[in-house]
Amino acid sequence: MSSHPLHCQFVPPWLLEQIASSGPRAMTVDPLTEAVAETLRTDAEIRAARVASARRPPRAVTAAWAVYTAAATQNLPGKLVRTAADPVSSDVAVNEAATGGQAALDLFSQVYGRRSYDDAGAEVIMSVHYGQRYDNAFWNGTQLVFGDGDGQIFDRFTKPVDVLAHELSHAVTEHTAGLVYSGEPGALNESMSDVFGICAKQRLLGQTAEQADWLIGEGIFLPHVQARALRDMANPGTAYDDPRLGKDPQVGSYKDFVHTTSDNGGVHINSGIPNRAFQLAATAIGGISAEGAGRIWYAALTGNRVGPNTDFAGFAAATVAAAGQNTDAVRTAWTTVGVTPGGSTPAHGSGGTNPAGSSVAVRRTGGFAGITRTGELDLDSDDPRVGDVRHLVERTDFRSLSQRPPMPDAFSYTFCLPDESEVTVAENQLTHDLRRLVELLLDEG
User: Fold this and answer.
1) Which element (helix H / strand E) includes 125?
2) Is the distance from CB of 230 to CB of 219 less than 8 angstroms?
3) Could you give the angle at the alpha carbon of 303 between the alpha carbons of 300 and 307, nearest 5°?
4) CA distances from 174 to 163, 266, 407 (A)
C-alpha cells in the first residue's frame, strides 16, 4: 500500500477569507480578522499520510477513542484527557468530542459493521483546544483536530456532532472507494462526509428522516450570525446569508452545476446535488436515515461499482443497484436532482490563461466548500512588493515542480507567469519561497 498526504477541514477556507476581507482596514488590529488569518496560515502547515483499502467487514465492536487537549497550541496530539473508559470531564469540549466521536464510530460499527475508519479497529484520536481562536476542524490522516472558534462568528467546533462524523467519514471514503478530489468524484467525496455526518446526528438524536432538519454544522455559528448552519442538505444554498459570511453558494440540481476550474472543479459547491439526492431518497424510504438510504449509500461506496473516478451518474447507478425494494425511490431521488443513473455526464472545467505583459499572478482554489482567490502584480509598477516578488520568481524553477493530485480540503495554487505555461502546485509542495510569494501576491502579509 502507498501513502499520501491528507488534510480535511470542516469550514471552507474561502468562507474564512470572506470574513477576513470584510473586516476593518484601519491601522488597528481586528481580533476576528487576526484569528481568521492565523487559521488560514495554520491550515497550510498541516499534513499527514493515509492509506487506501476496500473491504466489507463483518459486524464488529466499535473501535477505541481518546481525547487530548492541545491547550491552545499546535502540538498534537497534546495531553491525554479522556478515553472511552473514563468518566465525563469538566471540559465541555472534551465531552462534546467524546460524544461525537462515539456517535460516528457507533454508526459505522453498529449499522454497517465497519471496524473504525480503516476497517482494522484503529483507535480514533481527537484533539481539542487546538491553536488560538482556531476556526476549523480537520482530519490530518492520523487524527481529528478541533479549534475553539474565534468567539465572534464561530463557536466551538466540537458542538455539532456531524462535524466529527464528517471528518471521520473522509477517512472512510479514502479507505474504500478512494474518490479522487476533483470534479464530480470530488463532489461525491464531500457529499459522503455530509451523508454519514447527518446519519450520525439523526441517529444520536433518535430522529427519523421525516423529523430531521437536515442541517450540517448547526450550532457552529454564534447566535447573532445570520445562519442556520453551514449547509442544508434538503435545500442547498439556503444555510446562511450574512454580511460577513456572504451567501451559501451550494447548488441542488444538476442543471445548476457550477462549471469551474476553481475548487478542483467546484467540489464543495456541487456536493449539494448528491446531498439533496440522499435527503430525497431517505425521506422517500422513511424511517431512520442511517438504516434506510444510509445502508444503500454505504453499500455503493464500498462495493465494486464505485472507484476513484466515479461520477454522479455512476454513483447513482451504484445506489440503484444496491437499493433492492427501494429501487424506485432511489432512482426518483437522483432524477429529481437532474442525474440519470448510469447515464453520461459532460466533462467540466477548462484551463486558465496567463496574465498579460509583465504581470505575475496566483490563483488559489480548494478549501472545505471551495472558492477561488486570486492575486496579481504588475512587475513594472511602483508597488512596494515588486522587488520581493521579482526576486522570488527569478530564483524559482517552476518547471521542475512535480505535479500531484488534489487532496480533500487542501489548497492548490496555480502560478501564472509572463511567457510561461501555468503551473499548479499542491499545498504540501509549497517551498518557503513559494509560500512567501503567495503571501505577497494575495496580500496576506
Assistant:
1) strand 124-128
2) no
3) 85
4) 18, 19, 11
* Mean of all residue pLDDT scores within the chain: 84
Q: How, if at all, do strands 124-128 and 231-232 pair?
A: unpaired
CA distance 312 to 298: 15
The single residue of 129, 170, 175, 268 carrying the catalytic annotation is: 268
Q: What is the pLDDT of residue 9?
A: 63
- Asked if the structure places residue 287 within a domain, the reply is yes
Which CATH number belongs to the domain containing residue 162 in this structure?
3.10.170.10
The C-alpha cell of 361 is what?
499572478
Active-site residue 268, yes or no?
yes
222 within domain boundaries: no
- 348, 184 in Cβ contact below 8 A? yes
Output the 3-class SS for 255-284.
HHCCCCCCHHHHCCCCCHHHHHHHHHHHHH
pLDDT tens track for 216-267: 999 999 999 999 999 999 999 999 999 988 899 999 999 999 998 777 788 8
Residue 377 near residue 361 (C-beta atoms within 8 A): yes
Distance CA 404, CA 400 (A): 13
Element (H, E) at 82: strand 79-83
Cell of 373: 482567490
- Is the distance from CB of 374 to CB of 364 less than 8 angstroms? yes
For 304, the domain range is: 181-215+228-350
Q: Active site residue: 17, 96, 167, 174, which one?
A: 167
Clarify whether 34 is annotated catalytic: no
Q: What is the pLDDT of residue 27?
A: 43
Q: How far is CA 241 from CA 159, 222, 231, in A?
A: 21, 14, 11
Specify whether the CB–CB gap between 57 and 115 falls below 8 A.
yes
